[in-house]
């Protein structure tokens, strides 16, 4: 698939703009990464390694260089029931391989920790705020959410999702499905119905931890290039009965008051 994406990008004929505004980038991406305690330290470590490897990979660099301006802006934070404030890596322009490695090294240096609960709504709200107050003007603005369970804390997820989408942002998802999901129909369907939104939004499932790095790299390449996965590899919102987007809150309430 990544080879196909690279070919499609090559056929697009896009070349870096000779003169781009100082704050203009092809895409602004916020990486919002779940570090809730439903994943153990080994899994979170492999997840971290997946992001670091993806950011250093040639296909990621080539995707950046293949854009209209040849540069993107990227930032990062971790979340669970709340945003982990000291996990935030501020906006950085990626234009060269050295830029990408520098950002990946900042991420790699972060300590690994877990937190309680799962608030996708808080993650989306934080990502939207970072984009709207950030210094860069992206042709596309993407909140990239990875997670392993439905929203069970904070505000309901769909109103927050809808507000971000209404402002012109795209929300894509990486559904971490290493264990059976609390979401009926699968976590990827929950993400499709309740989390992702905007033009070309997609969710990619990860069923095996060893596939994580490839999935992250593939998602980043698609986001930078503005492409979508083929239908056979993409969960489409609205396929089958709609998911109850409050399922996580209901399950948490039932467990707490049992």
CATH class: Alpha Beta
Number of beta strands: 6
Radius of gyration over C-alpha positions, nearest whole angstrom: 17 Å
For the biggest sheet, the summary is: 6 strands, mixed
Contiguous runs where pLDDT drops below 50 for at least 5 residues: 1-19, 232-238
The structure class reads: alpha/beta
Number of domains: 1
Write the H/E string, N to C: HEHHEEHHEHEHEHH
Strand residue percentage: 15-25%
CATH architecture: 3-Layer(aba) Sandwich
- Topology-level CATH name: Rossmann fold
Task: Classify the oligomer.
Answer: single chain
Strand order of the largest sheet: 3-2-1-4-5-6
What is the overall number of helices?
9
Roughly what percent helix?
25-40%
Mean pLDDT: 86
By CATH, the superfamily comes out as von Willebrand factor, type A domain
Q: Could you say which overall geometry the principal axes of the C-alpha atoms support?
A: globular
Intertermini distance = 46 Å
Label this structure with key terms.
signal, 40% helix, 9 helices, DUF1194 domain-containing protein, 6-stranded mixed sheet, 258 residues, Rossmann fold, 6 strands, alpha/beta
Could you walk me through the main structural features you see in this protein, from its secondary elements to its overall organization?
This protein has 258 residues and is of the alpha/beta class. The protein has a single domain, classed as von Willebrand factor, type A domain (Rossmann fold). The protein is built from nine helices and six strands, in the order αβααββααβαβαβαα. It has a six-stranded mixed β-sheet with strand order 3-2-1-4-5-6, sandwiched between helices. β2 and β3 form a beta hairpin. The radius of gyration is 17 Å and the shape is globular. It starts with a helix and ends with a helix. The N terminus is likely disordered. This is DUF1194 domain-containing protein. It comes from Rhizobium hidalgonense.
């Amino acid at each position: 698939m990544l080879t196909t994406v690279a070919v499609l990008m090559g056929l697009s004929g896009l070349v870096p703009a000779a003169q781009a505004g100082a704050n203009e980038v092809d895409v602004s991406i916020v990486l919002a990464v779940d570090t809730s305690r439903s994943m153990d330290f080994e899994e979170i470590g492999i997840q971290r390694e997946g992001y670091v490897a993806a950011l250093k990979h040639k296909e990621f660099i080539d995707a950046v260089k293949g854009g209209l301006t040849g540069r993107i802006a990227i930032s990062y934070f971790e979340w669970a029931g709340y945003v982990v404030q000291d996990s935030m890596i501020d906006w950085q322009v990626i234009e060269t391989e050295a830029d990408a490695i520098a950002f990946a090294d900042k991420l790699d240096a972060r300590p690994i920790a877990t937190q309680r609960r799962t608030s996708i709504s808080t993650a989306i709200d934080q990502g939207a705020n970072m984009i709207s107050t950030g210094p860069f003007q992206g042709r596309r603005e993407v909140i990239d959410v990875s997670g392993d369970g439905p929203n069970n804390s904070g505000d309901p997820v769909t109103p927050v999702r809808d507000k971000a989408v209404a402002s012109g942002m795209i929300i894509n998802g990486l559904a971490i499905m290493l264990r059976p999901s609390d979401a009926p129909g699968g976590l990827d369907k929950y993400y499709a119905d309740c989390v992702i939104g905007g033009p070309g939004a997609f969710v990619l499932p990860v069923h095996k931890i060893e596939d994580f790095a490839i999935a992250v790299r593939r998602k980043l390449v698609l986001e930078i290039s503005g492409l979508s996965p083929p239908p056979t590899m993409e969960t489409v919102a609205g396929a089958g009965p709609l998911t109850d987007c409050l399922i996580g809150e209901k399950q948490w309430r039932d467990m707490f008051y049992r």
